[in-house]
Task: inverse folding
């Protein structure tokens, strides 16, 4: 087993090199640190890979079957499986980190474990085939390592020479020294706020931070305090809404049509790419300095319907609590019908946004159709449902479009940008080479999306419904194409990932383009005000009526564990609940690094305190 452990360790060292791709490490101390970390952590990964087999072997020693051939094969089989799993996990972590900038974490586990999560990635058959080949490949390689460990006479002689007592002791001492060295280096770097080492540690999955303040003070080192912020959601149960909502007696029951496109970024709303939607925006209320409530679907949609910051999501999911904007419509007798070209189970909108809706009013994707085909079929069904509605009731229709989500599929006649990449393979793609064709596919998909929007908007106009219908057209979040170092969304708070379009048609309002800051969390207050709700938005939301007097000086954007405060000058990113490694930083508004964050924190003290209070407003 020792020979197999050694060979597995060597392969892990090679495998972990993928984690170093794209790292910009200029300081020599950081280079030495990252080498020490990867050598010592690969040792830990190797022991994790073989630990189940060692435990089983030890358990079998006390039993009569210990020397049977079946017991031996069980131990070897478990060693093979666990080694392959660790190798695959490390490889997958490297791919995820290279593309998205985060490691395997709670968000990834939620993606894997929730029905519809894997499907939401838009993986094609070629990706699934490549994953299957990778699994077979790693199992094959681990099998060869195990066979070599068992049968190779040359390897036995080599290990006999190397793994003598002195060699083993020397290796263990070296590994302990490396592990202790990187621990001390990180502790001192944290004490001195030395960014090269702190940033380099972020490339290592499951890296554990060390704090050595007393040790550093005893050495006579001077502490460099690095300004930082950490947010926390208020404890206690939900207090939402804080008071019951009240509608004016003469309130109009305006219809609501709410159209949301996955991964639709604001700069694609142009006459060239999206002529029909742009023409509609020119006639409507067009918010051109708009931010999502999140850099991913979960937080973006949550903020859009609840008017709250992303960290509240977890409490609402636990409570199966829907938003008051939907409560208001249901209580007013609205005919509500909602559609998605994805799944309502991932994210868990069936237990949040639409928790009060019967399943018969929730329509999901046809798994045999592509994204744009589902969009096309759902648009037809949406229009039919309005045509055949009970005209005595006001109606609300929601549609979540999938065209602009990876793999960015579209009908070939909709191609306006070339060259484009027709199929995405997450395993084999090279973003340096493939990013432009992939982006062109995305733009073509947005052009296709425009046709779907156009059908709905044209129908509403030709049927005369625009006079009595609020129309919201927006995206859940944006999509990055390596402009700031990442692809997709859910990884950072750059504008490319966080700025979707927002167009609102409000009956009776003259066309207007807004340049002031706006946020997804303003939508509930805006819709409810138009429906005659007189309760102040502060009782059920952290947003404002977009047609009211309030002018925003900042917005808040969330991901799984962080919040970003964004204003016209900067972005302050801070962890929520626990200080995730590398979770906090400050950039300029256009996402450039800020060498000294202290003045930024000081200048935004009021905004930071405001967000802290708002995270406790709806808990008691």
Result:
């Amino acid at each position: 087993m020792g020979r197999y452990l050694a060979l597995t360790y060597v392969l892990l060292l090679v495998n972990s090199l993928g984690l170093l791709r794209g790292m910009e490490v200029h300081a020599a101390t950081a280079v030495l640190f990252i080498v020490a970390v990867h050598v010592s952590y690969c040792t830990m990964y190797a022991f994790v890979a073989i630990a189940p087999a060692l435990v089983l072997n030890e358990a079998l020693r006390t039993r009569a079957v210990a020397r049977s051939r079946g017991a031996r094969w069980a131990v070897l089989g478990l060693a093979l499986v666990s080694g392959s799993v660790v190798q695959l996990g490390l490889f997958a972590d490297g791919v995820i980190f290279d593309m998205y900038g985060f490691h395997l974490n709670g968000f990834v586990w939620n993606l894997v474990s929730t029905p519809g999560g894997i499907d939401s990635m838009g993986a094609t058959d070629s990706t699934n085939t490549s994953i299957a080949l990778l699994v077979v490949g790693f199992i094959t390689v681990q099998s060869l390592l195990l066979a070599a460990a068992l049968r190779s006479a040359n390897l036995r002689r080599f290990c006999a020479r190397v793994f003598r007592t002195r060699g083993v002791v020397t290796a263990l001492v070296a590994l302990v020294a490396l592990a202790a060295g990187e621990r001390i280096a990180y502790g001192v770097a944290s004490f001195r706020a030395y960014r090269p080492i702190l940033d380099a540690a972020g490339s290592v999955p499951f890296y554990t931070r060390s704090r050595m303040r007393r040790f550093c003070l005893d050495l006579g080192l001077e502490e460099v305090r690095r300004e930082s912020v950490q947010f926390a959601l208020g404890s206690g149960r939900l207090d939402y809404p804080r008071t019951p909502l009240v509608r004016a007696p003469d309130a109009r029951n305006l219809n609501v049509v709410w159209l949301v496109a996955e991964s639709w970024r604001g700069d694609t709303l142009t006459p060239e790419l999206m002529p029909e939607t742009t023409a509609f925006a020119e006639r409507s209320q067009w918010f051109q300095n708009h931010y999502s409530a999140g850099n991913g679907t979960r937080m973006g949609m949550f903020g859009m319907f609840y008017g709250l910051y992303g960290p509240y999501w977890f409490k609402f999911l636990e409570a199966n609590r829907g938003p008051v904007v939907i409560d208001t419509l249901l209580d007013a007798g609205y005919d509500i019908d909602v559609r998605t070209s994805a799944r309502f189970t991932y994210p868990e909108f069936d237990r949040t946004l639409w928790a009060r809706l019967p399943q018969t009013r929730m329509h999901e994707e046809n798994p045999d159709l592509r994204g744009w085909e589902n969009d096309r079929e759902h648009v037809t069904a949406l229009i039919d449902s309005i045509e055949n509605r009970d005209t005595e009731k006001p109606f609300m229709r929601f549609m979540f479009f999938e065209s602009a989500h990876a793999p960015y599929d579209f009908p070939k006649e909709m191609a306006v940008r070339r060259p484009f990449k027709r199929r995405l393979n997450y395993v084999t793609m090279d973003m340096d080479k493939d990013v432009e064709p992939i982006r062109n596919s995305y733009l073509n998909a947005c052009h296709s999306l425009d046709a779907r929007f156009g059908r709905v908007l044209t129908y509403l106009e030709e049927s005369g419904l625009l006079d009595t219908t609020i129309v919201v057209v927006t995206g859940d979040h944006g999509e990055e194409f390596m402009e700031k170092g990442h692809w997709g969304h859910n990884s950072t708070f750059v504008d490319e990932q966080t700025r979707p379009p927002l167009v609102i048609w409000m009956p009776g309002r003259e066309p207007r383009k807004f340049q002031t800051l706006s946020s997804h969390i303003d939508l509930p207050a805006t819709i409810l005000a138009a429906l005659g709700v007189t309760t102040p938005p502060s009782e059920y939301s952290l947003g404002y009526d977009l047609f009211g007097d309030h002018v925003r000086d900042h917005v808040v954007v969330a991901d799984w564990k962080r919040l970003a405060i964004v204003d016209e000058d900067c972005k302050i990113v801070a962890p929520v609940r626990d200080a995730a490694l590398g979770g906090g930083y400050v950039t300029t508004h256009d996402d450039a690094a800020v060498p000294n964050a202290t003045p930024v924190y000081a200048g935004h003290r009021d905004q930071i305190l405001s967000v802290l209070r708002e995270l406790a407003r709806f808990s008691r």
Observations:
- Residues 298 and 347 are 6 Å apart (CA to CA).
- The longest strand covers residues 255-261.
